[in-house]
Amino acid sequence: MDRIACAFIARYELMLRARREPELLARPAAVADLAGPGRLGACSPAAEALGVRPGQLAASARARVPELEVLAPDPALVEEGDRDVLRALDRIAPRLDSDRRGAFFLGLGGLERLYVDEAEIAARVREALAAIGLPARVAVADQAFTAWVAARRAHPVRIVPAGRDAAVLSAIPLADLPLGDRGAELCALLGLDDAASVAALPPGELARRLGREGAELEKMLAGSRPVAWPREKMAPVDPERAALDVDLPVDDLEPLLFLGKSLVDRIIAGLVAQRRALVEMAIRARLDDGSEVAHVLRPAEPAVEARPVLDLFRLWLEQQPMAAPVVALEMTAAATAVPSARQLSLLAQREEREAEALGKAIARLSAAFGAECAVRPVLVETYRPEARLKWERFSVETENRQQAAGNRQQATGDGWASMMMRIAEPEEIEWQGDVVRRTGGSARVITIDGPHRASGEWWAEGFDRSYFWLGLSDGTLVWVYRDERDGRAYLHGVAD
Amino acid sequence: MFSGLARKGTLLAPRAEPAPLGSARLEGLLGGGIPRGQVVEVSGQTSSGKMTLAFAVCQRALERGQAAAWIDPGGGFWPLVAVERGVPVERLLVVRVAGGAAVLRAAHILLSSAGAVAVVVVDLPPGATVRERELVALQRLAERSASALLFLTARAKTAPSLGAQVALRLHVDRRGGGVAAPELSVSVLRNKQGVSQRAAEEIAHGPDRLRLHCSL
Questions:
Q1: Which domain holds residue B164?
Q2: What fold characterizes domain A241-339?
Q3: ipTM for this prediction
Q4: Would you say the pTM of this structure is higher than 0.95?
Q5: Which residues of B fall within a CB distance of 8 Å from A414?
């Protein structure tokens, strides 16, 4: 079994800032995204000494410590820091990954002959990170998640013996997991009190209940293996891939190039969105006689455009005509790399042009329909269902393309996550037995899913609802609730 | 290795890379996805799943860091399930306007800025019609900006398409599977760049349930 090491850098973003401004750690300071929920992230030791803790609302922390310096997150600094750390660790192990929040993972498989033992690897990791001004705690375990939780509590190194992950997890209190308030509350309701019991939940459960933070935690709990970095050294864990089947076998050069172009375009677009460049493209073609042909294209430099790959594809087809017509074609990005500075600059220019075009479109929309017409959804922490989405004005300046691409979720994968819906102001309906009557007609209830209770806001007017999904005889799937305070039923939404 | 579904008419495929749908079966059926620069109609009755299909196209664009626009005339578009599942919505532009004419004007404005958005979904209000010359104008703009342009309509399967300019018409039906896992059937009623009258089925996971919350 390949072992995994985790290097954890506490107060990661503050430590990155402290490399430039060492006195920062001596001042009460914390990082918080005031444009978002406004909760504190990393806090300086001076701030923690005054009772400021990560997760507190910035406003309440400031009320307690008026001199607290609240710093806006700096994604560019974190990205630069990630690269520095990964470069430093690349000298120790070839397979690396980062959670972009101060945890770095090293795949230790195959390194047995290079180091005396895991303790030596851990020591080298600490030395490498200390050399770039980032003190780290290091742990080694069977699973990435175990290594991560152990590293957070290591002083400063912990080697979890092989096969002992479960014992370590069972001793980790929930407070050490990145569950957030809702997650902690949910776990308390479910009677889960340590990391092992959370890890034992059915797959998908955390993502379903906690959204993005649940999906991230689940990925971590699943012990997902480190990916390679830089990518030249190993195939990506989840490579970009595209395939086409054709009914009418193709044997001419130009039609084959045309087919190939659509696949190459798609793969390159996917890679560029992840800020990757293509190093190797594996091609497999299935021929009409049942045989298969495979080939690997290697551009002269990591490619972020389709043209050099297509040139190589054309050369290959010209030099090695297919023995029979092609009935299916598949391409896979077998190896990728971080684009060069020049390529990154070109990509940035392209993105700037697109952002400029989007900005112009929004300005024209606002002029035509009013400033509030262009919005985007933002999740809000509240119990009231209709208030869980807030619509904020769409602003090109504040949107972050890289963040969007970085938020790409493995969990969504192929297939559709779930049905979309529309909601409206709750409309009172009459629901008795298996008949629903509303303005304009009635329908029979065919299927019922529920009830799902929603209640809260006792300090104000409050609400107490039992929600149901009803499949009606007219084919509609409606979201209704019964107000538990007066027994009336309301139509709240429709799936589509 | 390869999907079982075949596709024809690949040689007439559009030049720009199709917009992926997140369903291998449908993508195989459509030659890679929704063609860009063409007028695409997604029809279906209420609760058929047409919004689900259209949002799947947006989701794939958003995951690539591209911008996607959803023109919402009724103000009822409610992507809570997608947001909670972690779909990156930083670049999801929801345009709230009133009336069929305003919807088309908004689409016109968005597509006029070439490269601004990768996907435009126009949720047509019930009963709204679109004149052919408006469709032609929008198609040309979509072609210039290489955007995927989808119209959502509530037309029945047997009803005619939105117009002759529609290059691809998909019709969505919810076949059953209960509330928890509805099965969506997608039929290709028109495909100027491939074969029509093919169908694929996709199982969605159902409208997400409300989370369990206790009263404070």
A1: 17-203
A2: Dna Ligase; domain 1 (3.30.1490)
A3: 0.85
A4: no
A5: 22-24
